[in-house]
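User: Just a sanity check before I run the rest of the batch. Below are the structure tokens for the first item. I only need the designed sequence back.
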């Protein structure tokens, strides 16, 4: 597993759009579920996971001051990690960084709707590492996100 670091940036950061285009091309359902419409409209801050050696983006997580309906408190909306970098702790560190950013910027813990088995596991891991998060686990559906 390559060494990585997390950087928190604004949604306007020039590295984000090309990465989301890659998600759209590789995993259309994830792109639609996590990164379009209301889900991106409210986003203010993005955690980028960067390969230390190449500076390539290997994962993202998005944070909004509200949920996708424009109500509620800060919300982590979409997390996606490139398949070759999975199961190496990238999503866990993205979620931990966004939890810290939520408390810094919005002075409130973030909520997250965990949709996939991997998303649920990464949120549980982040909480176990001390992240302050309100995790809502959605286990009723059968399809995993790619
Ligand atoms: C879900 C996703 C973000 C996880 O990313 P990741 O970088 O592999 O996650 P981590 O390495 O931080 O894993 C954290 C924990 O979750 C577990 N985990 C990861 N993927 C898993 C999966 N698909 N099923 C079950 N557990 C999983 C890991 O084993 C790890 O647990 P451990 O520390 O006890 O071994 C990634 O698989 C992905 O982008 N999936 C498609 C989009 C998606 O589902 N996003 C989340 C929506 S809520």
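Assistant: Here's the designed sequence for the first item:
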């Amino acid at each position: 597993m390559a060494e990585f670091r997390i950087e928190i940036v604004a949604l306007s950061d020039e590295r984000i759009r090309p990465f989301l285009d890659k998600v759209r091309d590789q995993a259309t359902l994830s792109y639609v579920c996590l990164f379009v419409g209301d889900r991106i409209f409210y986003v203010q801050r993005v955690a980028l996971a960067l390969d230390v050696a190449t500076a390539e983006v290997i994962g993202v997580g998005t944070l909004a001051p509200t949920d996708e309906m424009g109500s509620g408190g800060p919300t982590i909306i979409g997390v996606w990690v490139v398949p070759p970098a999975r199961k190496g702790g990238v999503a866990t560190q993205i979620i931990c960084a966004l939890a810290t950013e939520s408390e810094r910027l919005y002075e409130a813990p973030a909520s997250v709707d965990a949709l996939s088995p991997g998303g649920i596991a990464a949120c549980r891991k982040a909480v176990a590492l001390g992240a302050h998060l309100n995790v809502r686990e959605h286990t009723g559906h059968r399809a995993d996100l790619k």
